Amino acid sequence: MRHTYECQLRWADMDLLGHVNNVTYLDYLQEARIDMLLTHAPEERLTALAEGGQILSHEVQYAAPLTFRLRPVHIDTWVTSVDGDTFTLAHEVYDEPRDEDGARTVYLRARSTLAFFDFELGERRPLTGDDRAVLASFSEDDVLGERAAYTEPRDVDFGDYAIRVRFSDLDAFGVVDEVQYFEFFQEARIDYLTRVWKASGVTMDRAPMVIAQMDVDYLVPITFRTEPFEVRSWISRVGGSSFVIESELRDGQTAYSRARVVLVTFDPVTQKAAPAPEALRELLLAQLP
């Protein structure tokens, strides 16, 4: 069984291409997950929600662009596995088919691993019998394949970026909200690519890009402070129309989060992947070890 949530779009959700921003989708998934917990958590629903908010990882596949409209988009959420004190949710953002013979239009598929957390004790709490019963009622097969592995972090020219935590980045429990990490890595990624391009002196036409997949692991919670954190990014793979940027958010020897993003160059007319301009591809290849 799947839990279905109808998510309202906002004009502010759009990016410069007129699509729902890749970071905003995490807000949508968070709303769907909370709605599922509030609707189906046994008895003390708000308490269950408060103790159930620690995200360990997100794997997000962007399947098709979603543009603004007044009607809501559907989000299905279900459970793919329960392992010890953690469980994994799958999500699908979609529109129902317009006729009986049609297929649903899928905009995004995702997989999220969570653990229930006791914020007063500052530690994970075990899954109760009630927790397992609720989770079991939503058990279905996974829709994502095996995730790609991270490469070893490395320092590269222009790959360093200092990110400051804003007070508005914090959630109700005083730690940086899961969604903001996607924004942190986005800022670092844009800064990295811009500095590489400017330093090269290469002149080329603008190449539209979209994100095909983004994986984020949450290693240590971040609390507010005025000193910036360090994000280092590097390119780990270059293909014909896609390339991979990996990042690590850290402070000294402590790694707080890891990310891996697959970007694809595309044709804005056909809205499909297109080969990267040769000048861009050569620039990216030069960043490989």
UniProtKB/TrEMBL annotation:
This is Acyl-CoA thioesterase. CDD domains: 4HBT. Signal peptide: none annotated. It comes from Nocardioides cavernaquae. GO terms for molecular function: fatty acyl-CoA hydrolase activity. InterPro entries: 4-hydroxybenzoyl-CoA_TE, HotDog_dom_sf. SUPFAM superfamilies: Thioesterase/thiol ester dehydrase-isomerase.
